[in-house]
Amino acid sequence: MKQIYSDIIQFRGSHYEFGYLQGKQLKDSFIVNNRKRFWKLRRPKFQINQNETKQMLNHFAPGIWEEIEGLRDALNEPMEEILLNYGGYRVEIEKSGCSIFTGKDFMVRNYDYHPKTYEGRFSIFQPNDVGFAIIGPQQRITGRMDGMNEHGLVLGYNSIHRKKPKDGFVCHMIGRIILENCKDVGDAIMMLKEIPHRHSFSYIVLDKKGETYIIEASPRSIQIRQSNMCTNHFELQQDENKRFLDDSYRRLQAMDEQQEQATDVSKAFRLMNDTDKGVFSKEYQNWAGTIHTSTYLPNEMKVGFALGGDQEPTVFDFKKWLNGENISLKQIIGNIDTNLNFAHMEKA
């Protein structure tokens, strides 16, 4: 069992200023040094075109490009290195799990992945230039793996596969772009149809109206369906699925069989976070262990967050924060049943 933490980063200001602040925080950190070490051991399976990346980001989310420029200036590294690690366009990723369960007024999400990729940064950002305020955990600094924005739009995603990739954005940057630019599920669906996808993922969105939509997005097709549960396979685009889906179906069945007991966010959190309910995963070595469980209540504008299993969530009042009340807590602490190293705490 290992105690881990996520730092809480809260900032109000411009994207450039936010990027610069984070660059100063990250300079000489385990996160940066582990990324450099990673690319020394592994050759990228893609190319980075700086002008094309800038053009794409400026089209969909111009503020994020300015944030990347702030990172570059604070880290004092070439833009090619910054885009390789934080650009979110044409970046290859590994396999992962993840499970999502929703009710009429909540979403609960298990984030399953390998500890060596986890950066331990929970971000609350209110831009004063462009885009909406967002609360949620970061991935690759500029991306968001799940989150909620100031209008109550909630998003999470689940991996399907990375076969036959095409030029496009990866999951965590897509999550950030949607949350920063869309007010509701209708806006999110429209943008997910427009944005270029590098890999196949399900994007699950919920807003204050209380209906959940699952957008099955691949580089080849976008399909929309409604359900309150999602794991790691497509229902509509079954030809896109991986061969071995036993674990994905097992977690989906566990949620289905227990959903009558998960009638509110607290009970749904226990369904997802308790290690004896069949949804929480300890497969960290296989890139599919549950690292955090997050809860989102769009009507109350509250977020819960826990690291590891059998935990109690730390609850954030996003509405109060948007009104100027800062959060005094500096870190979220949890315990995870693994001896593997985490990207923000140890040398990978």
Describe this structure as you would to a colleague.
The protein has 348 residues and is of the alpha+beta class. It has a single domain, classed as 4-Layer Sandwich (Penicillin V Acylase, Chain A), CATH 3.60.60. Helices cover 30% and strands 28% of the residues. The chain has ten helices and 17 strands. The chain has helices at residues 15-26, 30-41, 50-60, 62-75, 79-86, 171-181, 185-194, 246-258, 265-273, 318-322; strands spanning 2-13, 99-103, 106-113, 121-127, 134-139, 143-144, 146-149, 154-161, 200-206, 212-217, 222-225, 229-230, 282-283, 288-297, 302-307, 314-317, 331-336. Strands 1, 4, 5, 6, 7, 8, 9, 10, 11 and 17 form a ten-stranded mixed β-sheet that branches. Helix 1 packs parallel to helix 4 (62-75) and helix 3 (50-60) crosses helix 4. The longest helix has 14 residues, at 62-75. The chain is globular and about 55 Å long. The relative contact order is 0.18.
Radius of gyration, taken over Cα atoms and rounded to an integer in Å = 18 Å
Mean pLDDT over the full residue set = 95
CATH homologous superfamily heading: Penicillin V Acylase, Chain A
CATH architectural group = 4-Layer Sandwich
User: Percent helix among the residues?
Assistant: 25-40%
Most strands sheet: 10 strands, mixed
Named CATH topology: Penicillin V Acylase, Chain A
- Counting DSSP H or I runs of 4 or more residues, the number of helices is 10
